[in-house]
Amino acid sequence: MNCIFCRNSSLNSKSEEHIIPQSLGNSLHTLPKGIVCDTCNNYFSRKVEKPVLDHVFFRTLRSEQQIMSKKNRPSQIPIYLPEIDLGTEAAFHIPEDESAISVHFSDERHFRLITEAVSRERAMRMLFPINTGLPPYGLMDRLLAKMALEALAYRILSFEHDASIAGGIKEVVLDTQLDELRNFARTGMKPKSWPYHQRRIYDACHAYVEDNGELVQRLHEFDILVTDHSEYFFVIAILGIEFAINFGGPEISGYEKWLSENHYKSPLYAEKTMPKLLLERG
Asked: What is the CA radius of gyration of the chain?
């Protein structure tokens, strides 16, 4: 067995790979040991996933939605307290009845400063970031490239009983058409950025009704779109923000054309132009 990224032997690898980071609420969609070697797994965790999750955009999103880290810790976001000229970090918790908001400061000294100010009947404001923008190119696009290749491997594994899926995971490892995407995910070089499409397709807090009548929130959902022009796109929605990236090269116009031809309906909710692959939701 060889790693789908570096192609080195992964027979002794011990780690499962999460296609979507655990800190974005993913516990379901993982790859078995050996699909991604331990070296690449650790590298992506430190150099790709962590910088994206540490960006204020995702920290704020995770804080708003109360998504815990893989260590079961709430996300802290930067705040500014103008009355005491203090910048700090805090985690927020909003109960379901919205009766109150609890704030957990990263440093107990900051809490003491605030309580002292309140005891003197000073008005206190908390300023925190909104609409910060996505992580920059070189971060978000590499995470999408990494997830795309892993989602392809995940899809093939789910169809391995089908003889028409020739070569299975070995085909992903050896396919030179995936080398540009593979190398970009690993190094972020040549090209230095990979264009992707992004838009909001539903509100992060939107509740969906399951067949059994239960209301659920979709943290993420993803699929692979194959267009009439045989272009392959990885499409993922994270808390309602849809991202799409091309498997074949740093080009997104084919996806934009598909959207135009399909009335801008998300591929996650539209009939595909080729046989539909199984949509994955979490």
From this structure: 21
Q: How many residues does the structure list for the chain? A: 282
Distance in Å from the first CA to the final CA of the chain: 28
Pairing of strands 232-238, 241-246: antiparallel
pLDDT digits (tens, 9 = 90+) for 11-70: 999 999 999 999 998 988 999 999 999 999 999 999 999 999 999 999 988 888 888 887
- pTM of the shown model: 0.87
The whole-angstrom separation of Cα 256 and Cα 119 is 57
Of 10-24, 219-233, 260-274, the poorest mean pLDDT is in 260-274
Which residues is 2 bridged to in the sheet?
9
Chain mean position to CA 170: 26
Q: Please, where are the H alpha helices in the chain?
A: 38-44, 50-54, 56-64, 108-119, 140-158, 168-174, 179-187, 253-261
Q: Which two tokens stand for residue 143?
A: 């995470």
Which residue type, as a one-letter code, is found at position 93?
H
DSSP label at residue 272: -
Token pair belonging to 274 = 């080729």
Q: Which single residue is written with the structure tokens 């995940």?
A: 154
